[in-house]
Request: fold
Amino acid sequence: MTRSPKALARMVLRVARQALPAYSTKYSRHDFTQRQLFAMLALKQFFKTDYRGIVALLADMEELQRLLGIAKLPHYTTLQKAHDRLLKKGLLSGSSPLFSVLPTKAA
Reply:
């Protein structure tokens, strides 16, 4: 596991590019890709914060914004809905290959 949020974001984006389609449907708004949203959710867990907290942290970290490739910040409900959507699809369960890249508590 890494202690660097930038290293985590790079790793999560790399894995997500292989496992997730860019958008959940062809009708998606295209503001953020599923990959970007998944990386933001991983950072939320990394920083042990809530949805509003990760948006506030990203607002202060322009380098992470550039790394994620986001031109604007999501509303916190965008992250909540993405979390629910990925959970419903089984992509945030313990058996998902994506789940293994998320940071976990050290034993």
About this structure: The radius of gyration is 13 Å. The chain has a mean pLDDT of 85. The CA atoms of residues 66 and 76 lie 19 Å apart. Helices lie at 5-19, 34-46, 51-60, 62-68, 76-88.
